[in-house]
Amino acid sequence: MALALATASRLKAEVRLGQAISEFVADLSDEQKARFIAKRSQALASLPSIQDVRSLTAEIDRVSGGRCLGPRLIRVLETVQRFAAIGDIMVGGSQNIIACGVWSLLLTSSSSHLEKLSVLFMNVGRSAPRFEKIAALYSRSPDLQSSVYEYFIVVVHLCHDILRFTKRSTLQKFGAALSDSNLTKYNSEIDSWSKTIQDEVRYLMARRTEEEAEATSRFRNASSIFFRSASAQQKAQARQRILDFCCQFDYMVPWKRARKAGNTNLFRECQHYKSWKSRPDPSTLIYTGKVGAGKSVLLANMVDDLHLHTAGKDLAVAFFFARHDIQETLTARTVIGSLVQQLLDRVTDFTQVAEAFEMTSRKEPLERMLHLLKSVLRPDFKAFVVIDGLDELSNSEGEETLRHLFALRDLMNLSLCLSYRQEPNTSLKLKAGLEPFNAEVFPIPHNSSEIESFITDELGRRVESQKLTINDPLLPLEIRDALVKGSQGMFLWVALQIESLCTMETDEEIRHAINDLPKDLSETFSRILQSSNKSNSPYQKRILELVTVAQRPLTTEELREALSVTPGETNWDSSKLLNNIYHSLKYCGGLVILDEEELTLHLVHHSFKQYLIKMTEGPTDRLVDLDHAHKRMSDIIITYLHTLEITRKALTKEVFPKLDAESTMAGIIRSTRSSMRGSNKLALRLLRSKAPLELNMGKTLAQAWNLRNRPEDHSLFRDYAHTFWHLHIAWSLPLSSQVMPLFQKLCEQNMLSLIIASGDLQALFLKAVSTQSMEFTRYLTEN
Hints:
This is NACHT domain-containing protein. By secondary structure, the chain is mainly alpha-helical.
């Protein structure tokens, strides 16, 4: 046994990965084994693509019949797909069998127990390395190669554990479950290897930058001569640069949010949709619907249906979901760039694309992208394009988007589907902007049957999980009937009523609520805000202000840090950090929601944002005044950045004295940025320890400080503050006397990022001049 262990430890990681896959296959049933071998052979014959990932997750959701789980698996499946697809580049032909083996393994393992396991795979995917970056660097680093294999060894072992669990009898499963300790171990190991890969990639990219400093960027980026003579790794690098030029926004994030919101099949039965999907010539389909009726959910489901429809065919699907709370999605540059990137990503030989990229360097970005497509796509190439939320864009950005969509239609056989809110001026808007498309306009299908099913399923889940507690077993039926009657076709209204009912503690309270349901969304928002903040906590207004004006969704930790800042006070006091941000979010009553995968915060719907900034609670008190909210954010950002600079300077000069561990432990716990769970565990260990803490911590702290300057250790709100300070200040000028001195010091010390888009800079300068903000104007002029 000792000899076997010693031998195993000396084996290369790629060999151990192959062994892990073989052991997994050996435990499969005959039917599963045949499926695995068939999938692996298929992957070797035709390398898996992003289309395969989309089709697989769409199929999972089609057959699951319950909650939408496929999007949770997308990241980990994409990671494995990228590994398999560039396997011949990364590791050569023979080892590509291993890469395709991992891909086949995921296909085999992800079909059962998805409800519980989807969360686990979602967490695995959250830390997954980005293999498009690795492809260009892989051959240069044996350490990187080994780390990639180690990462997948853990993934395979996780799948093997899942397989063993699924093979148990029902009685055995009842008495045992996938060990929490094992799952924690897998999460920890996967996260560790992912960070190791990221560190190595960061190091290699820095080295590559130095080595290529003398080379011209145009030649390195994309010249056709370079492409014909370059190595596979160099081609992969140049290819990724062109795709990044088109768009770097992750278009999957808003789609996944919409897809997770629910399932719908009604559009599949509509003749106009069937006709649009099957037409051989270009066509445009437009869906309209009132606020909260489920347009985004319908189009998100349509994307899945189109991926299933195009699987195995020479057809493409591209999509984009614009979102009111992600400013980057509200520009034609991002919308068109994302669509072009998706269409180019399916192209394997980038030689012609690289040539077109070089020849069009003087053109505007959007025109340049169209030339890239023209260089590789046939005029008869068929593509389906789905865009949701186009009416969230400003008039000018929306018009530019439509203009370039029409240009796309001249390049290929384009079937386009758009959605618009049903408003008094919708018909005029569609007639003016979409007349060249000869579009067919339809209201979204009548959804009363699906709303009833949605209510039944949601109530069942809430009762089962005890989020909705009742005494009378007939009460859920009363709730269902009342919600169906009052819904008026609005899924959002229904979801908010169910969320509100879950906060009630007696059957009488629930019955009173369903007998007096709000008539519309505005009344719903008002009631929820009042009932969720009976203690008049100031955090409700502060949270709503910051989340409303944020230029991109804030993470929970970013919001936690921002809320701890008192404008003008530059002495950092960690005791002001919220101990439980989730508790504070309850003051918003479910109207601020958490994305389970991205861990970012969002207003529940764009209609709630409109309610906040337009409706008033009293004669003068608007719920969120945009000027005041931006001023609050500006004051927080300036104070925060100034505080960080003071703290940095103080710590670089710090002399670490002899410190008694016991007397300083409380301060350390208070000042740490670790999670509350970690602090609680440490507190319990200290309470249970009987030995005195006799330890000189000065030397330990000095050593620890030297290890803190790592990317993941940076202050959590700093990236947001540095990126968006100018946009918030443009709303807030002139700055208050409270923070103006702090801003002046930041200017003097060059502590503000000057990477600002020209349009934003012009708006900022005009606002500074118009408000006679002399110091601000001088700063912009000098820099």
